[in-house]
Design brief:
Its EC number is 2.7.2.3. The chain is an alpha/beta fold and about 1200 residues long. The protein has 45 helices and 40 strands. Helix 10 crosses helix 11 and helix 12 packs parallel to helix 13.
Length: about 1200
């Protein structure tokens, strides 16, 4: 089941890049359908007036050529109506494409037939063959199966990169997919689909559409579709007059589609019902005739002259559009606002283009949906100011309508979504986000490998599998747990594994209600994608697994994500501009950041894993301590040497992945050699050190000495010095006699002297050169306009040059042939054998990376211990946590003087520590310090103290932080209760619980009672089971003042004099009381208290809330009144009655009402003024007497 879960989850929507990532391109012949329908000069059809569409095709073509494919390229040009038209041949396209690619583009006189088949069959790697205009054959637009099959002949892969024709079900867009085994999207098609699909399916709102053009009839489907998705719709162009007619407005001779008037009425009514703002122009530019030189003027839509016609939107409308667009985040524009071909009627279209450019600069996404709107934007020189310019007008319209394009429907895979978290109720075909190689590399740089975690629960057993797509290792585990523990266990595993994707079976999830119990917000914060699959095994690619390992997740401390955040173990910070859910974050001020002095990315990843999974085995912890202690004691020279080697060590997982997929580059082999060299130097330093033999690392380094042979093999086979000046790896001399002979023979070719000889023989030829081109062999290259000797045989033309053969060229062909290609083939053969040898050592290479990463962590922790005066703690199996002069490692960096405190949790001193103290005295910092010290000790690190003995815990719970959010319908007190419930339900005798002011979020009586009950239960557990260990802070002093409550806790207070409280235990109790001490000021008129941040036995007498409020800036009168009420309440003296306060308020409001009722007291009568003063005096007297 786990295997099926993985194979389904890894199924991804293919693009040309993702196909190559699977090794599916190398050596293949690819049929590419591009949209090369460029405009030609009407007077000279050989001249291209705009090569934009050719340039748009370059990224896909270059990518394919870089990956050793041969390309059969096809396109249409113009509308020849199924007949050969010499003015519409693709010859100028081939010439321009040759210039842009920097290599000859071969051509054939047709797109199908025996001559074309022969050219395809003889096509070599790195060559491009451009077929003739597809639409010379009527079968193309008819989607004829026979024609499609001929196009697909000799092709291994079909790449559709023609978005401009993707909405047409033609033979070259849809038909060919039936006769090619693999069909994928090119870079341009993928880009178009991504922008346009996201614009309407998952836009940043408000979403607005600007629709222009002459006729409503061509935009009916898109208008109906956008009405369901947009917040605003703007209309322009000739279609607006049909909508005016629908409103009963006279439009003169303006274009009106009478049969669409009723549709316009219905659309306006529907927009009103849905609350979509349907914005029509309020003024238009009209003309007396449809000509560039016509008389024109601007009028209101209600004042259009009878004999005039509207040709543009007016300036008032332009201003309205600009204002309405200012707050929009996604804008889609299709169609001009007027007859923009005529300058005097182009102002509306130009103004809209300028406004969209301005919106883009402010952060909005602007998409120009093809057609005339693209031409208008380009004419204004604003194309680069837009987020995306679509290359297909009709296709973009159909995509905006919500249709599936015929040219995309049959493509095997589509564009991935960038959503971070799938809806938990998605259907079975919901796909997990996909990542290109560049994205994976970026993930490595940001600290996160690509991990998939699958879970399956049945009959009390939980199956777990974790697949690392970079190291290609699969770890599996089985745990026996109760149904009641399932959600808690999954929550823990998600924190410790931190997968990119969580894979679960739909039926299994529903049956056991797995996802219902998991915290949605917590999943969102940890970037986990939920991927649910059904019971049917999809046809999907196999995943590559180099090793299957048994593992255990019971050997690590249980700690949830809330506790990690509350203790500041990790702290993610986002740049202000990174507001999208898929953006990366950086590490902030945290324990991890403090410890992280690593030099490799893999070392940083391992250190993070150590903090996520603190150890439970004493021996494992002590082994790590031994290594850290070794590096902290007089090993400066060794450490300096190791650090130097680590700095040159590369994280080679991505290198290994490219070598495995047979698409390695010279820099990859150089990187692997550098990694091996650095590792062997590190290994030599460790093994030769006399004191290192006792370390756990020593034997692991010894076992990997076999990698010396692999390093020697790579260096002996590849000549890295010669490779620096070549685009491919150069095999050393002496490896192959055949290769050496070929090189010697190739070196005798002196093209320079031969060129000089030709120039001397044919002096009338200018710029003549001898070149070798792999498709045709040796050729003579000279300008097309040059004199051509009759013995020269024409081969082909390329831009302004022509290529010929002569007898010398044929002699060279016979003598040398494609010697360079022959040399490359031999080198590739040896490189393949070397690749095989490397992959045979793949397990050892992965072990090498893990070992170097751990060494990096040890050096980092050692450096931290030295820099911050950490000490090695003694590790114990007992229930104990003793630390002398303990410090919070982060807090001490933020203050000038830090006051250390002792931590004493043991059976003798009490396993429950109850701490009181005034506000701001350091109680919460002490709690966090206890948690941080415990975690540091169990990852094997030294701790911030002068001496420590720490017992191992298996679970750590906290009630320190409530992550309130608008998406979580819980009060802060409810979240506090959930955290306490978790620790009470799942804690055991070896747990550590840190509780900060539980009960403060509700009424005082309820809070005190809840806290007392929790303490009583914890006390009973300690008495009967010897645990858990608890540190708790509170401001509820009623626990000690109320006899019944104190007796319930086993405390007996002997005296209470002058606010000085002491106590002794009524019985042998695990509970001990401590206070964060403070010192009182000697000023009797303004008594204050200063925190000493020192923990002492005892109980606080006050929280000093008034002093805290005063420091925060609350007004003195308010504080004076509060102190008076506190004093009278505490000592039972006279109180202000509620009715008196009510009367005072009523009198005041009567006074205010009387004063506000008269707007001009300066002109009021004396009687009115006297009455006002009388009321004011009565209120003043009332206040003074009370």
């Amino acid at each position: 089941m786990i295997k099926r879960l993985f194979s389904t989850a890894v199924k991804k929507k293919l693009s040309v890049e993702k196909l190559q990532a699977r090794g599916g391109l190398n050596g293949k012949r690819v049929l590419v359908r591009a949209d090369l329908n460029v405009p030609l000069d009407k007077k000279d059809p050989s001249v291209i007036t705009d090569d934009t569409r050719i340039r748009e095709a370059l990224p896909t073509l270059r990518f394919l050529l870089e990956n050793d494919t041969s390309i059969v390229l096809c396109s249409h040009l113009g509308r020849p109506k199924g007949q050969v038209n010499d003015k519409m041949r693709l010859t100028p396209v081939a010439a321009r494409l040759s210039e842009l690619l920097g290599q000859p583009v071969l051509t054939v006189p047709d797109c199908v037939g025996s001559e074309v088949d022969s050219a395809k069959a003889n096509l070599k790697k790195g060559q491009v063959l451009l077929l003739e205009n597809l639409r010379f054959h009527p079968q193309e637009e008819a989607n004829d199966p026979t024609f499609a099959k001929e196009l697909a002949s000799h092709a291994d892969i079909f790449v559709n990169d023609a978005f401009g024709t993707a909405h047409r079900a033609h033979a070259s867009t849809e038909g060919v997919t039936q006769y090619v085994s693999t069909s994928v999207a090119g870079k341009l098609l993928e880009k178009e689909l991504k922008y346009l699909s996201e614009a309407v399916d998952a836009p940043k709102r408000p979403l607005v559409a600007i629709i222009g053009g002459a006729k409503v009839s061509t935009k009916i489907p898109v208008l109906e579709s956008l009405l369901e998705k947009c917040d605003k719709i703007f209309l322009g162009g000739g279609m607006i007059f049909t909508f005016y007619r629908a409103q009963g407005i006279e439009v003169g001779k303006s274009i009106v589609e009478e049969d669409k008037v009723e549709f316009a009425k219905a659309l306006l009514e529907k927009a009103k019902q849905k609350g979509v703002r349907f914005i029509l122009p309020t003024d238009v530019v009209v003309a007396d005739k449809y000509e560039a030189t016509a008389n024109s003027k601007t009028v209101s839509i209600h004042d259009i002259p009878a004999e005039w016609l509207g040709l543009d939107i007016g300036p008032q409308t332009q201003t309205t559009f600009e204002k309405e667009l200012s707050d929009c985040n996604t804008i889609v524009w299709n169609g001009p606002m007027g007859v923009f071909e005529y300058e005097q009627f182009a102002h509306g279209t130009n103004r809209v283009a300028e406004v969209l450019a301005s919106c883009t600069k402010k952060g909005a996404t602007t998409i120009i949906g093809g057609g005339d709107s693209v031409a208008a934007v380009e004419h204004r020189g604003l194309a680069k100011e837009m987020s995306h310019i679509s290359t297909g007008g009709g296709a973009s319209l159909e995509l905006l309508e919500g249709k599936i394009l015929p040219g995309d429907r049959e493509i095997e895979q589509s564009v991935p979504s960038k959503r971070k978290l799938s809806n938990l109720d998605d259907d079975e075909d919901e796909q997990a986000p996909t990542h290109s190689d560049d994205e994976i590399d970026s993930d490595e740089e940001n600290g996160g490998p690509e991990l998939f975690a699958a879970f399956f629960f049945e009959k009390g057993k939980l199956g777990i599998a974790v697949y690392d797509a970079l190291s290609t290792t699969l770890k599996i585990c089985q745990m026996t747990i109760a149904q009641s523990e399932l959600v808690t266990t999954l929550d823990r595993l998600l924190v410790q594994i931190h997968p990119m994707t969580m894979i679960v079976s739909t039926l299994n999830t529903v049956k056991h209600k797995i996802l219902e119990g998991l915290d949605y917000i917590k999943l969102n914060q940890t970037n986990v994608v939920i991927r649910k699959i059904g019971n049917q095994l999809d046809d999907c690619p196999e995943i590559h697994v180099t090793a299957v390992q048994l593992c255990s997740f019971d050997d690590a401390m249980f700690i949830d994500s809330n506790s990690l955040k509350a203790l500041q173990i990790f702290s993610e910070e986002h740049h202000p501009s990174q507001v999208k859910s898929w953006e990366k974050s950086k590490e902030g001020f945290s324990v991890f950041a403090l410890l992280d002095n690593t030099y490799t990315k893999s070392g940083r990843n391992v250190l993070r894993q150590w903090l996520l999974r603190p150890l439970l085995q004493k021996s494992s912890i002590e082994n790590r301590q031994d290594v850290i202690e070794f590096f902290t004691t007089s090993q400066e020279d060794l450490v300096k040497s190791l650090v130097a080697h680590l700095k040159s060590f590369k994280d080679y997982l991505k290198i290994l992945r490219r070598i495995r997929s047979m698409r390695s580059k010279p820099k990859d082999w150089a990187g692997l050699r550098q990694c091996l060299s650095s590792f062997l130097d590190i290994s030599k330093d460790i093994i030769q050190h006399p004191e290192a033999k006792s370390l756990c690392l020593f034997q692991r380094f010894e076992r990997l000495q076999c990698l010396q042979d692999l390093s020697n093999l790579i260096c002996n086979v590849i000549d890295f010095d010669a490779t620096k000046s070549n685009s491919s790896c150069v095999i050393r001399e002496g490896i192959s006699c055949e290769l050496d002979n070929a090189r010697d023979k190739y070196s005798t070719i002196d093209q320079v002297n031969m060129t000089l000889s030709l120039k001397k023989e044919w002096s009338q030829l200018k710029s003549i050169t001898l070149e070798f081109l792999s498709p045709v062999g040796y050729v003579i290259r000279c300008p097309t306009a040059s004199f051509i000797p009759p013995i020269f045989q024409f081969q082909f033309e390329d831009n302004s040059f022509s290529y010929f053969k002569c007898s010398k060229c044929r002699e060279l062909d016979e003598r040398f042939g494609d010697m360079h290609g022959y040399i490359l083939d031999i080198q590739h053969q040896y490189l393949s054998e070397l690749t095989k040898a490397v992959l045979e050592q793949e397990h050892q290479l992965l072990d090498m990376l893990q070992l170097v990463s751990e060494l990096d962590c040890y050096l980092s922790l050692s450096s931290c211990a030295q820099n911050f005066n950490f000490v090695r703690p003694a590790i114990s199996e007992d229930a104990i946590l003793l630390a002398k002069d303990a410090r919070h490692p982060l807090q001490e960096l933020t203050v000038e003087t830090y006051i250390p405190n002792d931590i004493t949790l043991s059976a003798d001193s009490g396993l429950i520590k109850l701490i009181t103290g005034q506000n701001g005295s350091g109680k919460s910092v002490f709690l966090k310090m206890v948690g941080v010290v415990q975690i540091l000790a169990q990852i094997g690190s030294f701790v911030p103290a002068s001496q420590a003995r720490i017992g191992i815990i298996n679970k750590l719970f906290t009630r320190l932080l409530s992550l309130e959010t608008a998406t979580l319908c819980q009060s802060s007190f409810s979240m506090d209760c959930n955290q306490v419930a978790t620790m009470m339900n799942h804690g055991d005798s070896k747990s550590l619980m840190l509780i900060d002011e539980f009960g403060k979020g509700t009424s005082q009586t309820d809070g005190v009672c809840l806290l007392t009950s929790v303490l009583r239960e914890l006390k009973a557990r300690v008495k009967h089971f010897g645990g858990p260990r608890v540190v708790l802070t509170t401001h509820f002093l009623e626990l000690f003042r109320e006899p019944k409550l104190s007796m319930a806790l086993g405390l007996d207070f002997s005296k209470l004099n002058n606010d000085s409280l002491t106590y002794h235990n009524a019985e042998s109790t695990p509970l001990s009381c401590y206070v964060m001490s403070s010192v009182e000021s000697s000023d009797e008129n303004a008594p204050t208290s200063s925190a000493l941040y020192e923990l002492r036995p005892g109980i606080a007498t006050s929280s000093r809330a008034i002093q805290c409020a005063s420091s925060a800036g609350i007004h003195k009168d308010i504080l004076t009144r509060a102190e008076e009420i506190i004093k009278r309440t505490r000592h039972g003296t006279r109180r202000i009655k509620a009715i008196e306060i009510g009367r005072q308020d009523d009198a005041f409001y009567d006074e205010m009402e009387m004063f506000m009722s008269n707007e001009n007291w300066m002109n009021s009568s004396q009687d009115d003024i006297y009455e006002l003063l009388k009321k004011m005096k009565s209120i003043d007297k009332f206040i003074r007497t009370n």
